[in-house]
Amino acid sequence: MTMLLRRPGWPEEGELVLSTVTKVTGNSVFCNLDEYGRSGMIHISEVSPGRIRNLRDFVSEGRVVVCKVIGVDKERGYIDLSLRRVSEMMRQEKMNEVKQEQKAEKIIEAVAKSLKIPAKQLYDSVSAKVTEKYAFIYNAFEDVVLGNKSLSELGIDKKYADALDEAVRLKIKPPKIEISGTFRISTYASEGIDVIKAALKPAEETKDVSLSYLGNGQYHIKITAGDYKSAEKILKPIVENAIAYVEKHEGVASFERKEE
């Protein structure tokens, strides 16, 4: 899993780093920190909880792992790493960042090919400007798709920026977020079913809203949007109007938001 991304300096303590195992000894694992081009070490006590009889049961040369930096000694050139302090969620988040950055690099490579220039030349030109403000090039590309920034504004040469902008908008879709919650509705009106249907009809007819029946008078609603502000703007009137409609027709309604 290679990346063109190379960060200057040293990693910070607590940072998650993509690492390739280079050597396994009796009680230590040596790695190359792929983003920094530096070496680090995982002591056997930081590989996994509990007693370890054979390190090779957990790691082997060439394996790519996500480690947490637990110590940096710049004077001695030491970087201490941990595997056991990286949860599965932390590992997945880091790997997702890496995959996204690889996607950004492929876009740059494709544009470089179309412009008939070396991919490394274009990458270095883009990276020099973008990484001044973003941790990853992909994050900058997302901002372009969302309309928050243009590549020219970031200082990228216009002869490259226009071609990159077109490719980025073609290959990267705007990120989506979801918010959801549950309606609880009860009514003793003779036409109770009709009341509930009418109360929830706006939700069913609204774009990017899904509604499902959970049973026992409970209805799950989910809003998909480009950002939380937009999602909340859709959700608020649906909830307020549904509750008001039910209460107006001899019913009781409430809404519980799911914690994100």
Give an account of the 3D structure.
- This protein has 260 residues and is α+β, with helices and mostly antiparallel strands.
- The chain folds into 3 domains: 16-86, Nucleic acid-binding proteins (OB fold (Dihydrolipoamide Acetyltransferase, E2P)); 89-171, DNA polymerase, domain 1 (Orthogonal Bundle); 177-257, Alpha-Beta Plaits.
- The chain is 38% helix and 27% strand.
- It has 6 helices and 9 strands.
- It has helices at 88-115, 119-130, 137-146, 158-171, 192-205, 228-248, and strands spanning 16-24, 28-33, 38-43, 64-73, 78-82, 177-187, 209-215, 218-225, 251-257.
- A hairpin with a 4-residue loop joins strand 4 (64-73) and strand 5.
- Helix 1 (88-115) crosses helix 2 (119-130).
- The longest helix is centred in the middle third of the chain and has 28 residues, at 88-115.
- It is flat and about 80 Å long.
Our count of domains comes out at 3
Q: In one word, what is the shape? A: flat
Strand arrangement, major sheet: 1-2-3-5-4
Write the CATH homologous superfamily of the largest domain. Answer: Translation initiation factor 2, subunit 1, domain 2
**The CATH topology of the largest domain:** DNA polymerase, domain 1
Largest sheet, if any? Answer: 5 strands, mixed, barrel
The total count of helices amounts to 6
Which architecture of the largest domain would the CATH scheme give at its second level?
A: Orthogonal Bundle
Strand tally is 9
Order of helices and strands: EEEEEHHHHEHEEHE
Q: Please state the CA-atom Rg, rounded to the nearest Å.
A: 26 Å
Strand content: 25-35%
User: Which structural class do the helices and strands define?
Assistant: alpha+beta
